[in-house]
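We store chain and fold; example below:
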Amino acid sequence: MKDLTMTQTMTKEDVTAMILSAKKQAGLTWEEIAEKIGMSPVWTHSAAMGMNAFPAEKAKLMVSVMGLPQEAESLLIESPTKIWQQAVPTDPCIYRFYEIVGVYGPTLKALIQEKFGDGIMSAIDFDMSVTRVPNPKGDRVKIEMSGKYLGYNSW
C-alpha cells in the first residue's frame, strides 16, 4: 500500500488495500464484517474489492468498522468501473469457475431459456450465498445464485 501524502489523492484501489490490511490486522472474517455493516458476505467482499458501490450509510459503517480514513467513505460510494481480466485466470479456485461456465454455460443458458424464454439472468438484480455443507466424502461448497430474469425485447 502506498503512503498517501497531502499532495496525493486516495484511490479506490488504496481503499481496497486499506480494507484488506485492516481485516487482516483485526483477524475478522468477511462474514463478521458483513454482519457489522448489515450486508451479505458476498456483496461486502465484492464492494470492498471495488466491484460494487456502497450505499452511503453502509460506506459510513465500513469506514467506522475498519478504521478507515474519512476520505475513504466518498470513494466507497463511487460507482465502480467493472474491469476484470479477460484471459483465463491461473488461480485454481477462480479457474474452476471459468471451467464450470465453459462446460455448463450452454446447458444453463438452454435450461433458463426453456423455463423463461429468450433472455438472461441479471447480475445486477442479483444475490448469491456461499455455504459449507458437511459430507462424509469431504465437505462441499454450495453456491446459490438468484438473479432477476430479463427477457430480450423484440422491436
